[in-house]
Amino acid sequence: DADVTQTPRNRITKTGKRIMLECSQTKGHDRMYWYRQDPGLGLRLIYYSFDVKDINKGEISDGYSVSRQAQAKFSLSLESAIPNQTALYFCATSDLTSESYNEQFFGPGTRLTVL
Amino acid sequence: KQEVTQIPAALSVPEGENLVLNCSFTDSAIYNLQWFRQDPGKGLTSLLLIQSSQREQTSGRLNASLDKSSGRSTLYIAASQPGDSATYLCAVTTSGTYKYIFGTGTRLKVLA
Questions:
Q1: Residue A2 pLDDT more than 70?
Q2: With contacts defined as CB-CB under 8 Å, which chain B residues touch A40?
């Protein structure tokens, strides 16, 4: 089984709809991240969480919110989807230890299309 | 503000060639640097992680080097194969923030 899973893998929705993307991990990592990837722009950080009680905005958090339900679960919500949120969304995890040095591991991605 | 640049954006080489991918960053106060591989429409696979105190890391045909003072890292791929065709991304974590900043990647095509 994959260590970092994302659901759904693909989603098509309409402008104005609320949508939630979910991420689960079995790596036991404290740190979790949400990124979006757009052609030519690389990966940009939306939100990140260093433990269950810690939530931080990334560089492009407007229009998004997150929830860290447990160490293993981190959800991203689009309260009112708009077409320019069409992108590939990735969840990632890491752990800051003397063994792992914050190495990041990624989920398979969710392709979101907003019509 | 940390910025990460990867040049070239795309590269085509014949099978068997040794090649070098480049990654530059503007703030030398990094905690680590990680190289990833991404196949089209897929997630990122971690290839190598170099800690700030290290100069290089090796895994199979891959060798990554780090020169913090010049703000540069290179990923060397020996004896390239068509299966190496993918986009290669580098990302750095800046000391203190521990957030990753990504380059936009180099799209590699190895021709059979």
A1: no
A2: 104
Which residues of chain B make contact with A102, given a CB cutoff of 8 A? 31-32, 93, 98
Q: Which two tokens stand for residue A46?
A: 């939306």
Q: If you write DSSP's letter for every residue of A51-73 in order, what string do you get?
A: ETTEEEE-TT-TTEEEEEEETTE
**Number of cross-chain residue pairs from A and B with Cβ atoms under 8 Å apart:** 55
Best mutation target among A34, A61, A104 (most B Cβ atoms within 10 Å) is A104
Q: Which residues of A touch B34 (CB under 8 A)?
A: 103-104
Contact A42 B104 (CB under 8 A): yes
pLDDT in tens, B3-55: 999 999 999 999 999 999 999 999 999 989 999 999 988 889 999 999 999 99
Identify the CA nearest to A91 among candidates A71, A81, A76: A76
Report the Cα A109 to chain-centroid distance in Å: 9
In tens, the pLDDT along B58-78 reads 999 999 999 999 999 999 999
Question: What tokens does A94 get?
Answer: 């890491």
Half-sphere exposure of B29 (CA within 13 A, CB side): 8
Cis before A83 (ω within 30) = no
| Single-letter residue type at B26 | T
Q: What are the residues facing B101 on neighbouring strands?
A: B92
